[in-house]
Amino acid sequence: MRPISAIRFQPSATRILRAAAASMFVLALAACQNQEAAPSEGRPVRVVKVEAGKLANDIKLSGEIQAEKNVGLGFRIGGRVAERPVNVGDRVAAGQIVARLDPSLERNALTAAKATLEAARGEVNTTRNTFERQERLMAQGFTTRPRFDQSLKAQEAAQAQFEDAEAQVELAQDRLGFTELRAGVSGVVTARSIEPGEVVQAGQVVLQLAREDGRDAVFNVPATLLETLEGDTPIRVALAEAPTVSAFGRVREVAPQADPVTRTFGVRIGLIDPPEEMRLGSTVVGTMELTSASIVSVPASALTQQDLSPAVWIVDPVKSTVSLRNVDVLRFDPGLVIVSQGLEPGDVIVSGGIQALHPGQRVQPLPAAREAGRTAAAARPPGGPALPPS
Question: Is the pTM of this model over 0.70?
Answer without folding.
Answer: no
